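W.,

You were right to be curious about this one. When I first looked at the sequence I had no strong expectations either way, so I just let the prediction run and decided to look at it fresh. Below is the sequence, 478 residues in total, followed by the output.
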Amino acid sequence: MSNDRRDFLKLAGLAGVGLVSSGFISGCASTAGALSQIQSQAKKPHRQLFNMSGYAAPRMDKVRVGYIGLGMRGPASVVRMNHIEGVEINALCDIRPERISAVQKKLEGSIHKPVTYSGKEDAWKELCNRDDIDLVYIATPWHLHTPMAVYAMEHGKHVAVEVPAAKTLEECWQLVETSERTKKHCMMLENCCYDFFEMLTLNMARQGFFGELVHGEGAYIHNLIDLNFAKTSDTEEAYYNMWRLRENGRNGSLYPTHGLGPICQVMDINRGDQMDYLTSVSSNDFSMGPKAKELAAKDSFFQEFAKMNFRGNMNTTTIRTKRGRTIMIQHDVSSMRPYSRIHLVSGTKGIAQKWPDPARIASSHEDWLSPEQFKKVEEQYTPPLIKKLGEMAKKIGGHGGMDFLMEWRLVDCLRNGLPLDQDVYDAALWSSVAPLSEWSVANRSNSIDVPDFTVGAWQKNKPVELTLQGGGTTNVRA
């Protein structure tokens, strides 16, 4: 590979805006051209057709769901949804028939008799075309998220899409424009917003515990090397066609939303505050390249990956908001560090932090609260959703229960005609940090302006609702 080609891949991150639709370069462009296209999309003019923040779609007694993608995340969601009354699972889709058969077995004895679609690349479109689907749940490789979400909304369906919702700024704008035009919800399934501690700190912030918010931190630090290099032919617990390994050719904060989403909700981003600009820096790659070369020496299957330029082990992205707050987000999936989703909220009167465990809270600079004091704060500020379903969620599962809380809340909002906790502007903004960080990394960490997908509406949009007012009526099957 030529040096010019390597430079282009670094700058475009395999996902330069407007250059990619399937996760791979669609043509050779100059470095200047790649950056120019990213900049163009970052400053794209947009007239808001309809404000989806706070939008309540017409209520529905039943939420009829169709699933696209039954690989790593989809099957567990199907099982959890089976516990929620008012849900009908009417369709299942995966390119691999055996994945559908495995999920069908999990539904044996239930009320659900889904129609299935498989065997061809665009079978998912047939699912979206059905008249008996209200919500399309997308759990596919990243490069398919936006095309599927846009198509589903265009065909009258609400969308719940796994993270990240989009890979490029162009895709972020596509989601916003389509949701506004069709008045269909597009919720990114950021489950960490429903972690018990993250929700606790959100309520604490609302009640003034932290005083004026000053700074927040979030992270996704998770050693995925073995999983990323696992071959589908060797184990079912692998990414189809090595798609996630291929994504690591982009150099930036590729998976920012687990740490970013909860902090954005605490700071009322898109609803009272907005991101202004960011800077991003990545280390070199010290792990993935050597791993690929080691495997390629023994197995010719890995030779294409031995030629890749992988993203740096650690990426650190810092964001400044319009109100002068700061956010730090870290991404590292290839270092020998224990799992961490750093969640830190710091204000003028208090601080809360988790990862490493145990979670800690302080109301002065002198020391952290004692276990007894922590418990009292927890009892005082635990939000209604956790009080109502927390113990049930732990039993049903999904990352300690937060997945089930997210899905129950989504269904309950749709059934009661309530606004969703995450809207399309959150999906677009949180996802946009990845391509923007790639741009900053490629430019020696210079600052990059963050697009305002609400086009100024953030100044009047209301914060996320923490009560169950108007809802909470959806039952759970034991």
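Here's what jumped out at me. The longest strand covers residues 213-221. And, maybe more interesting for your project: The chain has 17 helices and 14 strands.

Coffee later to discuss?

I.
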